[in-house]
Amino acid sequence: MKQIECFCGSQINFNDCCKRYIDGTQKAPTPSALMRSRYSAYATHNADYLVATTHISTRKQHNKKDILDWSQSNQWIKLEVLQATDNTVEFKAFYLDCQMQMQIHHEHSTFKMEDGKWFYVDGEFY
Fold this sequence. Notes:
Blueprint: H1 19-22, H2 31-43, H3 47-52, H4 56-59, H5 64-73, E1 75-84, E2 88-96, E3 102-114, E4 117-125
Antiparallel strand pairs: 1-2, 2-3, 3-4
């Protein structure tokens, strides 16, 4: 099986990086690792993981079909992590939209640990 570099930009093999979090073999140890794995989930169209890693308090605001549609209608180019704290991550996700126009999703995300697992709560968009 061909090994591919992880979508999150870590320059590590996908199987040794975000895939282990997405497939549930390991828990993301930090908000930054969770955010990177969520980016990789968008790139691989894994809406189940995106829903499962959204905190229960905000999960109802995120529709699985809409997540899947958005992930599939865009071509994910690269991720830049700008800064991370104990429970936040600021990043830029670069992608081509359905009209092949370059877009940048700039977000300051908040995460919460519950029962030993990190969850995405919400984000402020720039």
